[in-house]
Amino acid sequence: MSIIVEFFVAPDDAAAAGVLDAGPEGVFESVPFGNFVAGTAVIEWESILTGRASADLVALGMPRIVAYARDGGLSLVFAFSSALRSELAAADDARLDRVASEWVRRDAVDGDAFDPEMARIILDDVAGLARLAEQDDHEVYCRPA
Predict the structure, then answer these.
(1) What is the pLDDT of residues 69-92, one digit of tens each?
(2) I want to staple 100 with a disulfide (CB 3.0 to 4.6 A). Which of 35, 38, 66, 119 is the partner?
(3) Is 49 in contact with 24 (CB distance < 8 Å)?
(4) What is the pTM for the complete model shown?
(5) CA dihedral 65, 69, 73, 74 (to 10 degrees)
(6) Distance CA 22, CA 44 (A)
């Protein structure tokens, strides 16, 4: 389980990889959260928003890792797909509510009990980053550490 999960907007993979060690705070627009597995969540969000099976997304290599700790540490940075970025950017409140509900439901099937209110807060903040990324022609990344 990740301790800190930082979602952020950066212009490209190289810039995103540059914050692997220190994190994006103070460098890029970012939002921090904690205590959930970010890679799994991002796959679930994309599955819910696009209708593609989670297993198919994983088989396609998602989420795409752009940097990882070469010293054996657990830090990494991964990129959202352009489809996920676009879907989140376009999602209205009602759609984000449905995604949050479905994410919580899927998480419960796996034996976890994710707070529905926190799920909605996370999705709202990440959707805001996706809108910013779309506006600036940037990408959305995640750094679980």
Answers:
(1) 877 666 899 999 999 999 999 999
(2) 119
(3) no
(4) 0.93
(5) -20
(6) 27
